[in-house]
Amino acid sequence: MNSDFTISSINAAVPQDFVSQILEPTGGKIDRPESWFYSEVHRENAYMWTISREDTSCGAPYTTGVRIQVFVGILQDTGQSAKQFILDFFEGKKKQCLITKIIEESDQELFTRVGIETNEGDHHILYSLFWGNDNLDIAVISIAGTTKDQWDTYAAVFNRMSAFEIIDMKRFD
User: Is pTM, for the whole model, over 0.85?
Assistant: First the structure.
């Protein structure tokens, strides 16, 4: 899943060396800053990867990072299509948060993407939300965020990390 999305006000003040991180067990990929930490937690119908500036290996919270959550079997679990699940989440965020930007619907091959950028307390967060096309019963929520005062510093990092791939289809041939 690739993103053509560009974040405005990018500040390249923090140069980063990136490495390719494989998202197991799906074989997806994301570029992550070399010095950042990677963790994963999976359940039967959900996969979650966290890439953060802070080490979360012992359950510690993070301030700056990206979390990708993939939910499969949405219809069976919730009674909703993946699209409705994502649109309900999207509408909920619009009601709960101070909105700084809305990213309109765009086709991303296997998925359709929408997004919302918010201020929530001291944090600036970009939610990238995806649902499977052609009745693909998969929903993806990507959350990129940091403190409001650090957003401009890390916006370029988040922009690069927004071009991730969830599934390596070659693994399933």
Answer: yes
CA gap 48, 97 in Å, rounded: 23
How many angstroms separate the CA atoms of 125 and 116, rounded?
8
Closest CA to 131 of 164, 91, 89, 95: 89
- The answer to whether the beta carbons of residues 28 and 164 sit under 8 Å apart is yes
Burial of 93-108, coded b for 16+ CB within 10 Å and e otherwise, reads beeebeeeeebeeeeb
- Structure-token pair, residue 84: 């409705």
Of 86, 78, 79, nearest to 111 by C-alpha is 86
Report strand pairing: 123-132 vs 111-120: antiparallel
Give the span between the Cα atoms of 105 and 26, in whole angstroms: 25
Q: What is the pLDDT along the chain (173 residues), one digit of tens a residue?
A: 443 333 333 334 454 699 999 999 999 999 999 999 999 999 999 999 999 999 988 888 999 999 999 999 999 999 999 999 999 999 999 999 999 999 999 998 889 999 999 999 999 999 999 999 999 999 999 999 999 999 999 999 999 999 899 988 787 66
